[in-house]
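Sat 14:20. Reprocessing the chain from the morning session after the first attempt stalled halfway. Input below, unchanged.
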Amino acid sequence: MDQLSKKRLVVRLDETESTNAYMKELVRKKHPEEGSIVIAEYQTGGRGQRGNAWVSAKGENLLFSLLIYPKNIPANEQFIISRIASLAIKNTLDQFADDIRIKWPNDIYWKDKKIAGILIENDLQGNKIENSIIGIGLNLNQEVFPPELPNPVSLKQITGVTYDKDYILDMLLREFFLLYRELEEGNTATIEDEYMRDLYRANDFYWFEDAEGKFRAKIENVLPSGRLVLRTLDDDDIRAYAFKEIVFLNE
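Finished this time. Tokens:
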């Protein structure tokens, strides 16, 4: 955090459609310094991966977008940013609760419940990343969730403690930029290894479903492109999937 520019923007909003959308407009108009953030008490159109909505009660959770200008990351290896963001949240939550895991590609789980989600939007110029906007929704203090949400949980529900959002944000940003500096120093293997160690359901065979049907498999790897590599139980087949091509089942 000490290496971030003092000119970086910190925008606090009572309400916005999406902190990512707000940040995109800032980038278009002002080209803010790396490390700039947009924080909102409430989002009317929050989104998660694969077009899913992100639902959060007003003022109870941590909702923000972070801007970075990563250097020398090929477009086909942009998943390293997702690894860093996931690990930053995981490492932060580890200080308050056990059993925090990263569900591929970048949902954060406590046991079998979702506590945080990430939406990363990269602006590509040729085969390089021009900028990356990292939207994070972290359930901190919400105690009642809409019934249509399948498996939400908050840190307060886990621990019984009410958390200061700015305190958690500072911790999370510190963890993020520790990993980000590792990336800038070329230590991608360290980040990739840590991500694999912290994956949800990574150490055994579980049920999945793809376009062909249900099957049991074990996570073998996550490629630099972000594709999930599975080894099937029945025929020892190796299969690789993009984000929308595979579903984790609770069987």
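The mean pLDDT is 93.
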